[in-house]
Specification:
Elements: H1 3-7, H2 15-22, E1 31-35, H3 39-45, H4 50-71, E2 75-82, H5 90-113, E3 117-121, H6 129-142, E4 149-156, H7 158-171, H8 181-186, E5 198-201, E6 220-223, H9 233-245, H10 255-259
Parallel strand pairs: 1-2, 1-5, 2-4, 3-4, 5-6
Helix pairs in contact: 2-9, 3-4, 4-5, 5-6
The structure holds farnesyl diphosphate.
Amino acid sequence: MGLADVLATVPDGSPQASLAHQVDYARLPSHVAVIMDGNGRWAAQRRLPRVEGHRAGIDSVRDVVEVSARLGIDVLTLYAFSVENWKRPPAEVSVLMGLLKRYLRLELDTLMENDIRFRVIGSEDGLSPDVRFELAAAERRTGANGGMRFNIALNYGGRAEIVAAARRAIAAGIDPQALDERQFGELLYTGGQPDPDLLIRTSGEMRVSNFLLWQIAYAEIWVTDTLWPDFRSRHFLEAVVAYQKRERRYGGIKEEAVGAGR
Ligand code: FPP
């Protein structure tokens, strides 16, 4: 994992190669979360049905998973389907579920070869048995892998996740006075994983769309106008380089300012 691994898959002298050289591999974001948006617009620009945008978006998923693993990112979370997405036409929902199943079936060997541990985060309620079966099979098969953790958020809603965690705390009889932020975080789907340091959103929208609401409290947000089906490793590397130029304060002040008493 690192520069050599990224360079192994990108053409010499390409923008990706130049960006890969700009990354500081000692300061990578531990967890990168991505709101994949713009599939419909991508299709509309080409006078294609919306679902063709989702289909094309699979290539972007492959590229981003590969570059993240090669960089040495610990956790990658992709927002594939929100609890609100059930409002879409049934035919579109069915294509999305079908694409997910197909992706998992086709990519499982690659995930294994790259030591990637797959997990789905979200509610199982409402998912059809065949989708659940495919998800469980992929989780089981990759469960012992020790490399990058790859979460797909499916039937996911940030508020619903927080409510579910509160219910879990109550059901477990946890003393409300003793419950702190660390312990509460462990009750979320992402328990045991670091919070996202970097949140990427494609297609220019400035919204968080009910995604990882608790976990993104201090995430740096990077928005690109690029539509998801056009998003590739180059854009991901751009986001990481931009992230590394930011100054993260977590509500505090600059360290030099502390020393200077300012
Ligand atoms: C948003 O575009 C995208 C989605 C709701 C689905 C994303 C799903 C995939 C890329 C395919 C399956 C995913 C995996 C991980 C295998 P939109 O339809 O809201 O676009 P628009 O805002 O332009 O209409």
